[in-house]
Amino acid sequence: MATTHDELSDTDRLRAAGLRVTAQRIAVLDALRTRPHATAEIVHGLVRDRVPGIALPTVHSVLGDLTAAGIVSRVSLPDSGSALYELQHDNHHHLQCVSCGRVEDVDCAVGAAPCLHPSRDHGMRILEAAVTYRAICPECERKLNG
């Protein structure tokens, strides 16, 4: 039986992507596992204790390498001041609170990439489709109606 992407260890995932296994890369992957949809600054804050002396530019570099290797996804959402990062997994969409910025994953309606088909593709091969649902989370709704 074949091993799925989710069953691979971080070490195996890095090696399969042709990347060296480093403490910085493992720490960034662990941080994204515990805090998906994190900015580079948030990831930096999470890995500083584990990798003393790690600089923010190093975290940016690691995130870039992991994104290029397809291990991490870079997510750009409206009203987010910075790019967000998450571990790469199945095709999905995002739900974003317009008040506090909270981001949650939403399963794709069809479940296969791409799950949306444009009315016209202009001769291009679709690689991915992304939808961002903009909403108000329950906590912000309570504050608004407070």
From TrEMBL:
Its main location: cytoplasm. It is found in: Cytoplasm. GO terms for cellular component: cytoplasm. Transmembrane segments: none annotated. Zn(2+) binds at C97, C100, C137, C140. The keyword Phosphoprotein does not apply. Its cofactor is Zn(2+). Binds 1 zinc ion per subunit. It comes from the Bacteria. Belongs to the Fur family. PANTHER family: TRANSCRIPTIONAL REGULATOR FURA (PTHR33202:SF18), ZINC UPTAKE REGULATION PROTEIN (PTHR33202). This is Fur family ferric uptake transcriptional regulator.
